[in-house]
Structure formats: structure tokens, C-alpha cells
């Protein structure tokens, strides 16, 4: 058991609350639309971490009163077969959201596959239409991990206007959309990446640090400005210790040193990860309302 510490941002608890609100709206949707909202998840290959992630998504989808469609395809699936599946899901009225688990096996072209998803069903917010709308500041489906991270930040800090934020990582899935969301909240945003020089100095300026690097415990406590809020997106599995089958999961931030200086920090596990799934269900339900022409009160799932 982790000890209670007011510095810890409990993403798991926040996500439970979000899912409870989703369940209420999902039931209301079913009553109005005469069908459940539906989420399809496509997994190509047997990456064990992804399999766990897909299984917990399916379970939580059903618990929230939505329908889950799982499509597990072998690692040697051709591009043609995968695109044909996406076409079928695009045309299926029972499916409101489509998530293709990334990364795909090397022989598949990720960009082409993602672009094939109907923007109306793009619950991951990865199509050019969704990314374009986000960049333009227009409403649309926003990638789950950055939106979940923003929800935690606003819950903890309130208004983010004028704060110095540093995002470490510039991926399409996490870093770039996170930058857009923080800009939308009027933060002063710095983006760091693998070519950034003096990363420690860049991080030290920030009131808000979002780490999405994929390097276990890389961001050290002594890099962090005292009192800063730290969002650790990283999910890294360490090699197993002696006699253990599986290694521990750690973030991109060195939690033990960072919690000494930070004002608030998300743990791994139990921080951003559960929020990603919560927002995925939220996005699926938002898409369902739009696809079925059923109204959803503004802000009710934020
Ligand atoms: N909690 C959750 O729900 C989720 C967690 N994740 C986790 O978040 C992490 C990041 O994921 P993702 O964005 O997809 O990863 P990517 O590998 O796509 O991107 C990593 C980014 O980090 C940058 N980077 C790599 N090394 C360094 C370094 N030494 N110093 C500074 N920047 C560096 C890269 O820079 P460059 O662009 O120059 O290569 C790149 O922009 C992973 O641990 C992943 O497992 C991901 C999705 C959801
Ligand atoms: N198209 C696409 N969209 C994604 O959003 C996406 C993806 N592909 N590929 C892989 C990454 C990774 N990811 C996670 C989501 C939740 C947890 C999660 O719930 N983690 C829990 C449990 C961790 C554990 O102990 O296994 C936690 O952090 O507490 C983890 C990882 C989404 N991703």
C-alpha cells in the first residue's frame, strides 16, 4: 500500500469518477438512441503489454454500459486485410469509435492505416482531420493520454493561464497534442526532444512538467523546480528482478527523487494510464452522440 501523500495526483481515482459519469451518460444514450454506444479495438500481433491494455479496455467498456468489439489479428496480417477491416468498421453503425493499437508491426504503414479511420470514429484523435482541428483550436476528438493529463492538471491547479510548461517528447500520440492543449490553456510551452540541449536546465524553468519520453526514470528530482506539477506519462517495464517473472513498471520520471521537490506528481502505475482508458471511453461516447444525432450536454464528461 502506498501511504497517503497530498502531493500524489491519484489518476486511478479520478478515472473511476470519470467512468461513473460516463456510465450514467451511456445509459441515457442507450435509452435515446435505442442501441448501446460501441467501441472497436484492433490489435495486430501479440505484444504482451498491448494485450493487457486491450483486455482492460474491453472490460471497462462493458462496465460503462457500452459495447466492445475486439479484433485481434495475427502479426503477419497484410496491409490489405487491415484496411479492409477498417473499412468494415467505418461502415458499421454499431461501431462509434475505432482504435488501432500502435505501434503496428514493421511491415504495415501506420500513417495509411490511421488515415483510413473515419474522422467521425477517430476516438484516438490521430487522423489528419482531428490533429488539424486541434491545431486550429476547433472542437474535435482529442488524443486520450494528453486530454487525460490535462484533466488532472486542471483538477489540481485550476487555471493554467501564464504557467511555464515543458513537454518532453514530441510524438503524434502524446507530445504534440499535449503541446496544443497546454497552448489552448494559455501556458507558455516549451517542447523538448532527443536533440534538446541542457534538458535539465529546460525542465528547471517549468511550473508544469509533462514527461512522455519512454526512458525509465530519466527525469531526476534535482531537475525539477520546487513546487512544480509533474505529469509522468511514461510506461516502462524494467527487467525482472532475481526470481521474478515480470519487471516493475516505472515512469519516465525518477519518482522517489521527484516527489521530494515537486508540488504534485502522478505515480506510475495509477496516474496517467487509467486516465487514458477513461478518456477513450469518453471519446467513444461523445462520438456515439454525434454519430446518432443525440445531444450531449456541454462539458458533462470533462
Ligand atoms: N500512460 C499512457 O496512457 C501512455 C503512455 N505512453 C508511454 O509514454 C512514453 C512516450 O510514448 P510516445 O510518445 O508514444 O513515445 P515515442 O517513442 O513515440 O516518442 C518519444 C519522444 O521522446 C523523445 N526522446 C527520446 N529520447 C529522449 C531523450 N533522451 N531526451 C529527450 N527526449 C527524448 C523523442 O524525441 P525525437 O522526436 O527527437 O525522437 C520523442 O519525441 C512511453 O513510455 C509510452 O509507453 C504512451 C501512450 C499512452
Ligand atoms: N492507438 C493507441 N492509442 C493509445 O492510447 C496507446 C496505443 N495505441 N499504444 C500503447 C499506448 C500505451 N497505452 C496505455 C494506456 C493505459 C495504460 C494503463 O492503464 N496503465 C495502468 C496499469 C499499468 C499496469 O500495471 O499494467 C497504470 O498506469 O496504472 C497503459 C498504457 C495506450 N497507448
From TrEMBL:
Pathway of action: One-carbon metabolism; tetrahydrofolate interconversion
Subunit structure: Homodimer.
Segments forming domain Tetrahydrofolate dehydrogenase/cyclohydrolase NAD(P)-binding: 143-291
Domain Tetrahydrofolate dehydrogenase/cyclohydrolase catalytic: 9-124
Keywords, sorted A to Z: Amino-acid biosynthesis, Histidine biosynthesis, Hydrolase, Methionine biosynthesis, Multifunctional enzyme, NADP, One-carbon metabolism, Oxidoreductase, Purine biosynthesis
Entry's EC annotation: 1.5.1.5, 3.5.4.9
Function: Catalyzes the oxidation of 5,10-methylenetetrahydrofolate to 5,10-methenyltetrahydrofolate and then the hydrolysis of 5,10-methenyltetrahydrofolate to 10-formyltetrahydrofolate.
Family named by the database record: Belongs to the tetrahydrofolate dehydrogenase/cyclohydrolase family.
Catalysed reactions, semicolon-separated: (6R)-5,10-methenyltetrahydrofolate + H2O = (6R)-10-formyltetrahydrofolate + H(+); (6R)-5,10-methylene-5,6,7,8-tetrahydrofolate + NADP(+) = (6R)-5,10-methenyltetrahydrofolate + NADPH
Species of the source: Novosphingobium ovatum
Protein name, per record: Bifunctional protein FolD
UniProt cross-references to CDD domains, sorted A to Z: NAD_bind_m-THF_DH_Cyclohyd (cd01080)
Pfam families on file: THF_DHG_CYH (PF00763), THF_DHG_CYH_C (PF02882)
PANTHER family: C-1-TETRAHYDROFOLATE SYNTHASE, CYTOPLASMIC, C-1-TETRAHYDROFOLATE SYNTHASE, CYTOPLASMIC-RELATED
